[in-house]
Predict the structure.
Amino acid sequence: MGAEFTLVVIKSWDIENLKAFYEDLGIEFQEERHGDGSKHYSANLGGITFEIYPKKKSELEKESKPSRGTGLGFKVKNLEEVLNRRLVMHVIKIVSPIEETPWGRRAVVKDPDGRRVELYDS
């Protein structure tokens, strides 16, 4: 029996801004809180749970700059619209403009926390 991928959790100092960025990709989040845990946002993406949690003060000492070690990739509807209209208001950095690749049309941006996000036309 092989493993099945079911959960991605990213953390941010500004979960509201990060949520707004990913909502502009077409992701719909629900606000959640489990017991005494912190408020966070959760979305179901084709059987994979994608969550945004706030960073804790204890994580401040462990980190000298924002987390950039996690890369994400998403298929989006109308890649040009996402880049030209929706993400512009977030003042995102476009790492790679739209180009044809063996996997389809792709652009690479950075989310508000500096994570590399690959966007593919669906």
Remarks:
- The beta strands are 7-12, 30-32, 40-45, 48-54, 72-76, 93-101, 104-110, 116-121.
- The chain has a mean pLDDT of 88.
- The CA atoms of residues 8 and 50 lie 5 Å apart.
